[in-house]
Amino acid sequence: MMLERVLPYAKTLLSSVITEGDTAVDATAGNGHDTLFLAQLVGDSGAVYAFDIQQQAVDATIGRLKEHGLEKRAHVILDGHEHLSKYVHGEVAGAIFNLGYLPGGNHDIITKGETTISAIQQLLSKLKIGGIIVLVIYHGHEGGKEEKDAVIEYVSHLPQKYVHVLRYEFINQKNDPPFLIALEKMNRVGGSD
User: Fold this and answer.
1) Lower Cβ count inside 10 Å, N or C end of the chain?
2) H-type helices in 43-180, by residue range?
3) Residue 124 Cα distances to 95, 108, 115, 184, angstroms
4) For the chain, how many helices (H) and strands (E)?
5) Gene3D superfamilies, per this entry (predicted)?
6) pLDDT for res 141
7) Are 136 and 166 in contact (CB under 8 A)?
8) Residue 183 to residue 17: CA distance in whole angstroms
9) Please, what is the end-to-end C-alpha distance for the chain in angstroms?
């Protein structure tokens, strides 16, 4: 057995819960790689909602989807993920965040702890039982440690009867390697065990 790296493991987790006809969320569309992956999972009868605050990311994501003929499966939205409840109304099977900045973009435009936590809260209320939210946390940039600390503080205090929280990382890599946090919804708030 070989240990999966962080990004392949994120895909393994998502592909274990997202199937044809599901709704999925890419909370940080970036260059569209995860949006494309989710669009392949949900099939023609499903939908992906992808969010980014940068037009460059929205354009790249739409372009990537068009290259593969999957643009009809995704709604690519120029807005922050903290507003996702304005767009996503049904049950969500899975979601992914890549926290940090847009690769190849302006490194001064980064995700922030308060908006990320707001988006997580909204997604948890929409997530199906057994659904998963994956956060890939890049924290080796200006502002990254603050967001990392805020997100870890928040998810560490989620009730375990409601959400299982996993942290997956390689602890002997240098230069602030990314790590993964996965949230698996086990119950509705106030539900039975």
Assistant:
1) N
2) 55-67, 113-126, 144-156
3) 10, 28, 14, 9
4) 5, 7
5) Vaccinia Virus protein VP39 (3.40.50.150)
6) 86
7) no
8) 12
9) 34
Q: Assess contact for 98 and 32: CB atoms under 8 A.
A: no
Q: Of 42-51, 53-62, 135-144, where does mean pLDDT reach its minimum?
A: 135-144
Give the C-alpha separation, 114 to 42, whole Å. 29
The whole-angstrom separation of Cα 88 and Cα 11 is: 21
Quickly list H helices, 86-178: 113-126, 144-156
Question: What is the Cα–Cα distance from 15 to 23, expressed in whole angstroms?
Answer: 13
CB atoms within 10 A of CB 95: 32
Paired tokens of 26 = 């890419």
DSSP E strands, the chain = 23-26, 47-52, 74-78, 92-99, 127-137, 163-168, 179-185
Amino acid at 163: V
pLDDT at residue 190, as a whole number: 52
pTM of the model: 0.94
| Strands 127-137 and 179-185, sheet pairing | antiparallel
- In 10 A of CB 82, how many CB atoms? 21
How far out from the chain centre does Cα 86 lie?
A: 17
